[in-house]
Amino acid sequence: MQPYGQSFSSVQKTLSHRHIDASSRDRIAPRPPLRLSAAEEERGQVRGPMSDQHDIRSLIRPHLLQMPGYEPVEPIDVMAKRLGLAPDQISKLDGNENPYGPSPDVAERLAQHKHYHIYPDPAQRAVREAIGDYVGADPEQIVLGTGSDEVLDLAAKLFLSPGDALVNCPPTFGVYEFLGEVYNARLVSVPRNEDFSLDLPALEEALAGGAKLLYLASPNNPTGNVLPREQLLRILEYPVAVVIDEAYAEFSGESAVDLVGDRGNLIVARTFSKWAGLAGIRAGYAIVPGPLVETVWKVKVPYNLSVAAEQAILASLEDKDHLLANVQRIVEERGRMFDLLESMPFLRPYPSAGNYILCEVRGTPARDVRDTLRRKGILIRYFDTPGLRNCVRISVGTAHDTDRVIEAMQEIGASVGK
Are strands 381-385 and 186-189 parallel, antiparallel or unpaired? Predict the structure, then answer.
């Protein structure tokens, strides 16, 4: 007996309802001619055959033309070429990737798989079962995505109509605001306190004002602090869909997955990018409330998780002890790097439960610090936005990476104030 959601057979039934065979397509009526909107008629606009005089951009949803894009980090080969360095001279500490990479079993599993020409299981049975065992959740409530970004997008797709209120608590992961822009939501910004904790009274006021969706990262990226459980429980009292982004949960040892079964408005998003070293494979998932399962499967893109991602997930979970030992190595290196950074007067590192450390730079522009390290082949992230003025974020790498960062920072520190 399944306590929540659909059985795998009912998921398959849902998926089968999407199928349109060739004969059905032939019977679909032709699309009627486009009608002009009132605004277009007022402007005297004419819709005819597309020609060189027509600009296809005029058909784009207008708000998308104005929105800023998300700025991802560049890969090692691109940056190495740009800097005139060999790839092995690069310490890539700007994307919070795992320096130890995936389990060795992943490459072996991918090499042995024989059915890349066959579509993956649309119900993703084996992967959902394995993840359920890993996180202690009902497999029926697990939804897979190409990285946790896809399941974050899925939440926006489920809950946001144009003009709906999306609450965002900056500074935080930029994808939340990006998704609000894509879905033309009304962004309600509730800035964090100076120590990056939530301004809970202001947040509760925003939630009580009719918000539909709230994203919260725990640990928060880029600040590294964890959302206290008692605050989460207060937040969940409001009639708002709450997505807790736990991309870095393995590094913090804390999770809200156990609350999903009791709270009908909580979704927990997670990924294999960080702890399991699968950032390049793109493999994420969410644990969703039972009542959402049927609708999620209706709107989720079919076959969204590749066969390669499925095999990589299964191999990773079978070798999770090895991967979690690497997580512990990163946690220990995080502590060492924090202590070394804290010893430098021009840096103010913030305690972190993620695999990165945010530093406020004092007495010199943080952009110059980023650029100086970049010329040495050390890539870090630079911020100069409200709440993150003159800051850099440094991913935790190997001990060798830390030593390179500290040596470069000491050189910079020697000239600060002179």
Answer: unpaired
269, 258, 250, 260: which is closest to 179 by C-alpha? Answer: 269
Rounded distance, CA 84 to CA 11, Å? 51
CA 103 to chain centre: 21
pLDDT tens digits for 20-36? 343 333 333 444 445 55
**Terminal-to-terminal C-alpha distance of the chain:** 72
DSSP assignment, residue 193? P
Q: What mean pLDDT do residues 69-76 have?
A: 85
Q: Are 360 and 256 in contact (CB under 8 A)?
A: no
pLDDT tens for each residue of 322-339: 999 999 999 999 999 999
User: Crossing angle for the helix pair 366-375 and 399-415, nearest 10 degrees?
Assistant: 130
pTM equals: 0.86
As a whole number of angstroms, the distance between CA 96 and CA 92 comes to 9
Give percent of the chain with pLDDT exceeding 90: 81
**What is the predicted pLDDT for the residue at 68?**
85
Helix segments in 213-275, DSSP class H:
229-235, 249-252
Q: What is the DSSP letter of 199?
A: -
CA atoms of 140 and 5, how far apart (whole Å) = 6
Note whether 312 and 272 are within 8 A (CB): yes
Q: What residues form DSSP beta bridges with 217?
A: 245
∠ Cα 242 203 145 (to 5°) = 25
Cα–Cα distance list, 91 to 108, 385, 402 (Å): 26, 25, 9
Q: Name residue, tokens 């299981």.
A: 121
What would the pLDDT profile of 99-123 be if each residue is shown by its tens digit? Answer: 999 999 999 999 999 999 999 999 9
Q: Report yes or no: 338 and 351 within 8 Å, Cβ to Cβ.
A: yes
